[in-house]
Design a protein that fits this description.
By secondary structure, the protein is an alpha/beta fold. It is 31% helix and 18% strand. Helix 4 crosses helix 6 and helix 7 runs parallel beside helix 9. The longest helix is centred in the C-terminal third of the chain and has 15 residues. The protein is globular, with a radius of gyration of 21 Å. It starts with 8 loop residues before the first helix and ends in a 35-residue tail after the last strand. The relative contact order is 0.12. It binds S-adenosyl-L-homocysteine and iron/sulfur cluster. Iron/sulfur cluster binds next to loops.
């Protein structure tokens, strides 16, 4: 369905009133910049334009439920126009808040440690549905949040590189200085490594930052944990990453989920450092202990193991520990699975909600 959010200014003009560019611009700014979602309250729009707007829904997702973590993270269960549901997460931080959005309903990629994988793929999101998550969360949050700085990460449900045209469109709309004006440097997409799409991303004029979910230290181990590696090999992925870094000059953030006794040994750390060393300054690594969930056949390593792994990688490249956020309400990475049903299979995953 056509909706206003997600359209760029030129599209909105062509659709609504090519002869009234400054009025359409006012509308575009009211929504994208000022987050004024009530058309009626936007001043000085001609009646002809208001008339046309009657048939054009805004397209904001609807808040179905929110879950508040004891660490302050907020998980939003959102309903789209067709009734499907997705999740977004807000994570307040001392320096800069983070908004995590979904790029698809479910995911086709079958990573063994991820709860979203169990959903399969229902469909991809439109650009408007991705922009809508950001607009909605910002509008929902306390007014003081609006003045704080934030990052956006596409690390919710879905594989962004399997929805690249819409992801790039959303990036352009989010970055538009006449609207939301969010620097594309503040936007990160994370991919399981859909290798052929990296070259396309590299030449996009408005490009988010790139994160790659590495998660294994060898071809064989990655095939087990991320079966997509059979199609796009680890060697091929790392080669494409080298080309990406050369073409764009951008650094790449690699991510590594530590699974107890599976990919977390000293030897794994040494192999990871060796795999990334050829990328030189272009590579950084974030390690995160698994966020456990029912149905996921792995456990997080002990904290000392996580630190030992980091120390080894650090001899070769920058390596940071990512703190799990929102684990208690299943808002953390790999835990998004639309836990909306009050009972039944999904109900199993519903944890006590901490309010306030
Ligand atoms: N599909 C994309 C983006 C969404 S997943 C991707 O895979 O990159 C976002 C991140 O969560 C990925 O780095 C993924 O490896 C990580 N992840 C998945 N399941 C996890 C879990 N159970 N615990 C911790 N991180 C997890
Ligand atoms: Fe999909 Fe990412 Fe989960 Fe893998 S980790 S199943 S690519 S959402």
């Amino acid at each position: 369905m056509m909706s206003l959010i997600g359209l760029d200014l030129a599209e909105l003009q062509a659709l609504l009133a090519p002869d009234r560019p400054h009025h359409v611009r006012r509308l575009y700014q009211a929504i994208n910049r000022d987050r004024q979602f009530d058309y009626g309250a936007i001043p000085d729009l001609p009646d002809s334009l208001r008339g046309r707007l009657a048939d054009l829904p805004l397209g904001l997702p609807r808040v179905e439920q929110t879950f508040t973590s004891s660490d302050g993270s907020l998980r939003y269960l959102l309903t789209l126009a067709d009734g499907r549901t997705i999740e977004s997460v807000f994570m307040p931080e001392s320096r800069r808040d983070t908004i995590c959005i979904s790029s698809q309903v479910g995911c086709l990629v079958d990573c063994r440690f991820c709860l979203t994988a169990l959903m399969g793929l229902e469909r991809s999101l439109t650009a408007g549905e991705m922009v809508g998550q950001v607009l909605l969360l910002l509008a929902q949050l306390a007014p003081d949040v609006h003045n704080r700085r934030f990052n956006i990460v596409m690390m919710g449900m879905g594989e962004p590189l399997l929805n690249l045209p819409n992801v790039l469109k959303a990036t352009r709309v989010l970055a538009d200085s006449r609207g939301m004006n969010i620097s594309p440097r503040r936007l990160t997409i994370s991919t399981s490594g859909i290798t052929p799409k990296l070259a396309e991303l590299a030449v996009a004029p408005v490009r988010p930052r790139l994160a790659i979910s590495l998660n294994a230290s060898s071809e064989e181990q990655r095939r087990e944990l991320m079966p997509i590696t059979r199609k796009y090999t680890l060697a091929g992925l790392l080669k494409a990453c080298g080309e990406y870094a050369a073409v764009t000059g951008d650094a790449i953030l690699f991510e590594y989920v530590l699974l107890d006794g599976v990919n977390d040994s000293d030897a794994d750390a040494q192999r990871v450092a060796a795999l990334l060393a050829p990328l030189g300054e272009a590579a950084k690594l974030n390690v995160i202990a698994l966020n456990p969930a029912p149905g996921i056949p792995f456990a997080p390593p002990a904290p000392e193991r996580v630190v030992a792994f980091q120390q080894i990688v650090r001899r070769t490249l920058p390596c940071f520990l990512r703190k799990p956020r929102g684990r208690d309400v299943y808002a953390a990475c790999g835990q998004l699975k639309r836990m909306d049903a009050p009972s039944g299979e999904n109900g199993l995953y519903r944890l006590p909600v901490h309010v306030g």
